[in-house]
Amino acid sequence: MGCRIAFILLLSFSLVMLGCGGVNHSTTGPTPSPSPSNPTGSTIPAADHVFVVLLENHAFLQVIGSPAMPYLNSLATQHALATNYFADTHPSIGNYFMLTVGKIETNPVIGDNFPGPVSDDNIVRALTAGGKTWKAYMESLPSVGYTGGDVYPYFKHHDPFVYLTDVLNSGAETANVVPFSQITADLNAGSLPNYAFIAPNAEDDAHDCPGGGSLCLDTAKLAAADTWLKNNIDPLIKSPALANSVFIIVFDESLEADLQHGGGQVAWVMAGSHVKTGFRSTTFYQHESTLRLVLDLLRVSDHPGNSATAATMEEFFQ
Known about the structure:
The chain is of the alpha/beta class. The chain is built from twelve helices and ten strands.
């Protein structure tokens, strides 16, 4: 009898809790489920186009708040800024691979001299399987589909796509590696890809001085990169044809002496559709989260390498 009374009391308590909303789904909402239109199950809004712009070799504190970069800082203030974002390694090339393959692929000894190729799963394979289009817009690339070595101010190791077997073994994919100058024609023709990777040349990405070399004030490098962004990226952000697009501007690595989390703290700024305004995140992120974000925005289910377990960047969206 005692056991029966205890059971009845327990059952009554459970029913009361259910009736009173013991589990409050109205606060957190149900976990999104994958569907044909949203294979990732992400709450991040879908975008028609995602643009990722890579700049070079500066620490967060050199960039954010710098009077040499008024345009980028205006984007950071008006749109969204990650204040706890870190590169994955030194030197540059491993970060470029993390943003496209989800792995560093090379080691610091070989570094930027890494010969390739890379056959691991990657963003090209994921996008193609997901029915999405892509292009790498490389400033000063000698020609469409060029996969050779450096032709200054173009650096091969700033172009991760020309290491991927998915690109090297396909004439159609190789043709998606194009000079940056083609982006205007693609915009005017309404043929911009779903994913656009954009790399200014070494004189415009804050790597070298304007006009070449390294014998200039660091502020001159940053000012040249900022002017390039304003002249080339701002028109895209303001284009009515790209109203449902997201733009990410990020530095590949911090100063070599900054070894925090592998590659040091860097600036990461985002603008575009559904992005919160005046938002500053303090959450810890690295480049693999940016790779995941790109694929989530484009509703691609494959997440190569470390992007499969990377922190989601849902908090940046309204």
